[in-house]
């Protein structure tokens, strides 16, 4: 299993965004990018952009109130993917886009929208792009609809609330500068919004107990994530969930620093190592999810070893994970191609040794 990575989103071409694009560049997009011409919604800003293996491949422009569950809201994402994907693949992408939008409302508006047992209602439809009508696939679920069309080469995906499909018209965007400026303003407002939110109230816990609450929350979230992946869905986030998990994480890091006498940064790194150790066990070791006694013992020993430095029976597995994790973090500083080669050469043997150490522990337990 190649270690998962979270890659920062970005944009490319001629627009200047600190950390994303070259300096001293113009504001033209790197490829044909489409935006919303009608209806005219404000604010309009750069919502997302991304690249793979150094090549920039998508830009998303958002229009309307980002925190209004009823809309109006339109997200137009232009990407350089293949236009001949089967309808089943497109339907899966549209479903994930709708899931993602419901997560946006939970995070930004604090509203938990209903889950749906049935998939979206899919149909073919036309979308106005410039002066032409382009046929594509449309999926509607509740008050959200999403569509995918191939427009003048690139793929265009829409996610829409509160706007009828017949009133939407797209046009190419020649200048990203206003969207970049609006993005900066939006991020500033979002940061202020977060500062004004009250901190979550946690049940009292110290030391290993504080760590255990975090560990159980992360394991539960990761289990839901794995089930969502199996179903081809995006993990649904609930209102306040992110803030609560952040508070649990910060408390565990403070306890790690207090007990072991390390600095805040090193304490956070230890928490990261421990949480990833347990969630990877959840993925890779069948006994962890299949035998509650072994699961509880593994969690307990992992926490006592990390927080208290105890010489636990699974010490060899704890040390093997530390070696693997050191290699994993080093790989994240390399280019993707180099990282993959290095993982095959060193990461796979380290993970194998780690799993074998846990298997030996299971045999003794």
Q: Which terms summarize this structure?
A:
365 residues, nine-stranded mixed β-sheet, 9 helices, 19% strand
Task: Please give a structural write-up.
- The chain has helices spanning 87-109, 177-196, 207-230, 241-260, 264-284, 286-290, 292-308, 315-331, 336-364; strands at residues 34-38, 44-52, 55-64, 73-79, 121-129, 132-141, 144-150, 155-161, 169-172.
- It starts with 33 loop residues before the first strand and ends with a helix.
- 48% of the residues lie in helices and 19% in strands.
- Residues 1-26 have low confidence and may be disordered.
- Strand 7 (144-150) and strand 8 form a beta hairpin.
- It is elongated.
Unreliable stretches: 1-26
Q: Report mean pLDDT, rounded to a whole number.
A: 87
Q: Ends: how far apart?
A: 26 Å
Instruction: Give the percentage of residues in beta strands.
Output: 15-25%
Largest sheet: 9 strands, mixed
The strand line-up of the biggest sheet is 1-9-5-6-7-8-4-3-2
N to C succession of SSEs: EEEEHEEEEEHHHHHHHH
Instruction: Label the structural class.
Output: alpha+beta
Cα gyration radius (Å): 23 Å
